[in-house]
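User: Structure please.
Assistant: Input sequence and predicted structure:
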Amino acid sequence: MSLLDERYELSLERMKDMVEVQEVAPKYQEYFKQAAELICLITDAYDKVQSGWMKSAAIEELRELNQKLYQDILGENYEKSYANPTFTAEQFGLDMGRLLSFLMAELRAMIPFAFEGLLEELLIRMELLLEVYGAFSYACSEGQEAPDTKELQESLYWFVSDYSEPAAAWRVKTQVDATEDFAVRIIMDNDLNDLRYLYQYGEYISEDIEKMADYLNSLPQERVQMMADTYTEGYRIGFVKDGKPLHLKETVDVRYVAGFERMMKAAIANFEKMGLKPTIYRAAASIFHKKGNFKIGYYGAIANKQFEYDHKDDIALFLDKKLVQRKLEVLRQAYEENKEAAAKHAGPAVLEVFGEVPFAPVSKPEACALNDEQKKLSSEYTGASTGITYEYINGEERSFTIIAFPVPEIGEKFEEIFDETVKINTLDYKTYERMQAIIIDTLDKANYVEIKGMKGNKTDLRIQLYPLQNPEKETIFENCVADVNIPVGEVFTSPVLEGTEGKLHVSRVFLNELEYLNLEMDFKDGKIVEYTCTNFEKEEENKEYLKSNVLFNYDSLPIGEFAIGTNTTAYMAAKKYDIGSRLPILIAEKTGPHFAVGDTCYSRSEEVKMYNENGKEIVAKDNSVSILRKTDPSKAYFGCHTDITIPYDELGSIIAYDNVGNAYPIIIEGRFVLEGCEELNAPFDM
């Protein structure tokens, strides 16, 4: 027996003892009993996986195990769960409650590690609980109810700091090394008609996940192959269009949601024909890798979105300058250890889903929140860590693609909506290319563009455009058809910041699965100077909500993109099925003008020469912030880019103006008015 196994067996025995007897103050006995029970349940799942039970178990048994693992945070159970910071604060006070709620959430991160067979990941969290339990036990023996919260926080701090190095090494390896093939083997080695395979992930598997897999299994292979071809061909074309060396790459970062394995299996075969092997890694559940409540990687159903939201800023318990430096050091070290694999990594191919019931989070005062200093540190880390990643995975040599499909949760007309989405994803790009070229030719004459809202929309923006030096050979806007950004339907540019000003307003928008009501942003010289929404009664809560989830804790962000979406087919499909609030940004951005805050469209690829189909070079790539990459890269990039779309029915006008004041209307009262673009209005009348 190895030393690791010995430590594991010893820790497990102590967990079993803790279930029976808790040598701590009565107030904390139930907490440690439930924590130990959770670990025993997870380690039992680990044993089942190791024994091969998962392969022989009936699907009813697998569902039962899956429910047990997640039941603590499901539905009403969460109200009295120790993973709920509100409940733990009520039981133990605010400071202690936050610490113990974080610990319970971190123990829950053991679930996927059990299914991957990562014994050390289980062990370090078991030993952490034992260390914390020991501190409470000692305090009790000394006649105290609990240890000092500062001492407890320090113990948890050193756990986060000490294990940052192996955590970074493992994460980077799974991102760039195709030998880390846990998820690939689930896709490729199983009979996907037997839905028991879904439970091998260790993710929460809902009824909708099973329905999704069942639906894909019902489709003819030709249709599934067409979906996969659209996805992978968009990826390939992205390299061809930008003149990037796909032939020098060996791996592709495949991201998807459980239930889409049949399409992913066909996609993996397509990628292999391109010479690419998939790297498929799990979306983070642990504090070491979480980025707010974003999901980057593959994942199953979200057992409880409020739980995810409550713990998105747990790092606030520990974040200081020393920890930021530590995390950056180990990240660089991890990439250095994997630099050859990273250099041959081609970038992400993402399948997103939409249709879930919209989530409006409750902002809890008991949940951890970053203070002002930590917000600055967080934004500094985001920028610096993104810089390290792009240093090893060269941004000028990588590409991406994103495609989206609905899930059964969207409602009774799921199959109709799915068919409509496939149609939208495969629209004839030549038709859009032609009409978008007309729009671009008009915009290339302009000095600036004015965008105004209607029907209560208060948008009144002036976007300053890049001045062309050689209009015969250069263009300001990119003609975006069906390549990396599926579906077709937008023209976009990086605006000039100086002279860009005014108000952006959207009555209702969903950004990264969070709802925003009456979102407003005021800009001066292209940078956000004021922002608010009406989600909460208190203005300070509205500002904090936006700062945390849209500004990513920066004090301000520049406009990195101005675009005009042209996919009126997608817009009207959303109206027909009343799913506008459920569209992902990927599709929503094509259904009206949109404005991205953060990095430009060409972040870290500014030097790559790019051309529209008419041969004109796209020259509007930098702004006065991104150009700092040449002198001070730490100030040039933000590591975020969030698109905010004004729907056509709130859009009063988009009018371009040249240097002498000539007006060129593009859209008036939500309709395209340029000659040659009439076909874009046809879906409005269907």
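The two ends are 71 Å apart (CA to CA).
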